[in-house]
Amino acid sequence: MSETKPIIAIVGGTGDLGTGLARRWIQAGYKVIIGSRSLEKAQTAVNDINSLMEERGVVSVSVEAMANEDAAKAADIVTMTVPFGHHQSTLESIKPMLAGKILVDVTVPLVPPKVARVQMPEQGSAGQIAQEILGEDVNVVSAFQNVAAHHLQEGHELSCDVLVCGNKKDARAQVIELVEAAGMRGFHAGSINNAAAVEAMTSVLIFINKQYKCHAGISITGLDE
Amino acid sequence: MSETKPIIAIVGGTGDLGTGLARRWIQAGYKVIIGSRSLEKAQTAVNDINSLMEERGVVSVSVEAMANEDAAKAADIVTMTVPFGHHQSTLESIKPMLAGKILVDVTVPLVPPKVARVQMPEQGSAGQIAQEILGEDVNVVSAFQNVAAHHLQEGHELSCDVLVCGNKKDARAQVIELVEAAGMRGFHAGSINNAAAVEAMTSVLIFINKQYKCHAGISITGLDE
What is the predicted ipTM? Predict the structure, then answer.
């Protein structure tokens, strides 16, 4: 995998965040598999992406639709963008296909209707829950929780950074490559426990979006000293 | 208080963070009271600040040393910069002096030795603990947890933003004024529950500091859209 690009699945990948990431990785030359519980929904998302890529003049496009489990099986790296309500059940359904792989967990444990209020789960974070469910044989890496889907959907440059948490440095480094391929800076941000900070920050950003009428993200400062 | 500047106490204000904030507020023309459990320690900190202000050519300097309780009593706005281990006991000792005031809680619930690992308290955050202990008659506003003391100590411009959490918008707005007086941008970041995100982020920044050899902070992006 050092020479060729890994195949990326996006489980629950038909929403704004999933298709936003898909667009960027496809444009960077990755093969992407859009997964959904409904193959039909996944196929619709893929058709939309193909149309958009044609509009954007992207010549080489590699994207496919599959059921979530098949997507997870066919991929080298599995990204998951599902609402927190489907987090546990989705993890359980794809767990058998994840042995030895990286799971990129993008889940934010929002509790509607107060999504601008931090309300973290007892276990600490969605990332920790995922690592517990999947066990040591899967490297859970949490990332992308603070990126506005709105910005990913668009083709132009992104001004926000991505904090990457996970227990293995090498797994984090592979995800940082994917962050960079999507046009952002990625940072090693510590163990999977630290996902709590990043996930909680999403509610703060939702609050700021409402307060200041924007699509806020965060950026790391003070690096050059 | 609308015309004249509020008097600011910094309880537990002899450390790097407390004196860093003091320097900036004094230079902005505020009267600052440095509080400590030991009046002697507070006096030493005040002497150091006076020397530094002379070095920097600051003409009008208003700073005084007091025991924590007296500092809290004499001030309009009370800032607290104590280690998490002294958070509860300090709050209890100054509670009688805080009725009707704003308490600016800068506390981060770090659990040594693993300070680069997010380990939040059961109650959610230090800010929520403070609001619980002090009751509805005190407006707890959490702020400044992500600012490197190293940068505050210096006189020059700061590139990091401050997320300001608290249950009352007006109280947050008063603290945002203090953030701006200290040379940074301050943002309304939601209720005191949201302090959890900002406090947890400090451990992530400590991790980044070690990993990338820097004094990192965060900045809000995506505002101008």
Answer: 0.95
Give the burial string for A134-161 (b: 16+ CB within 10 Å, else e): beeebbbbbbbbbbbbebbeeeeebbbb
**Residue A149 and residue A145: Cα distance in Å, rounded?**
10
Counting DSSP H helices and E strands in chain A, the numbers are: 8, 9
| Cα separation, B142 vs B104, whole angstroms | 6
For range A158-178, the mean pLDDT: 97
**Closest residue in A to B118 (Cα–Cα):** A194
pLDDT band per the 50, 70, 90 thresholds, residue B1: very low
pLDDT at res. A162: 98
| B209 Cβ contact partners less than 8 Å away, ≥ 6 residues apart | B148, B215, B216
Say whether B222 and A216 touch across the interface (CB within 8 A). Answer: yes
Q: ω before B113 within 30° of 0 (cis)?
A: yes
Between chains, do B190 and A220 touch, taking CB under 8 Å as contact?
Answer: no
CB contact under 8 A, B212 and A187: yes
Suggest the residue from A215, A218, A224 to mutate for an interface test with chain B (most B CBs closer than 10 A): A218
Are the beta carbons of B101 and B78 closer than 8 angstroms? yes
Residue type, A32: V
User: What's the predicted TM-score (pTM) here?
Assistant: 0.95
Please state the three-class secondary structure of B131-169 as a single string.
HHHHCCCCEEEECCCCCCHHHHHCCCCCCCEEEEEECCH
- Using a CB-CB cut-off of 8 Å, the residues of chain A touching B159 are 221-222
- Chain A residue closest to B157 (CA)? A222
At residue A6, the pLDDT reads: 98
pLDDT band at residue A41, thresholds of 50, 70 and 90? very high
Per DSSP, the three-state class of B113 is: coil
Cα–Cα distance measured from residue B200 to residue A127, given in angstroms and rounded to the nearest whole number: 15
**Chain A to chain B, count of Cβ pairs less than 8 Å apart?**
137
**Mean per-residue pLDDT, B104-108:** 97
The SS3 of residue B75 is coil
- Strands A77-80 and A102-105 come out as parallel
Question: How do the residues of chain B divide into helix, strand and coil, expressed in percent and rounded to 5?
Answer: 45, 20, 40
In the sheet that holds A63-67, the strands lie side by side as A63-67, A32-36, A8-11, A77-80, A102-105, A139-142, A161-166, A185-188
Q: What is the pLDDT of residues B38-68, one digit of tens each?
A: 999 999 999 999 999 999 999 999 999 999 9
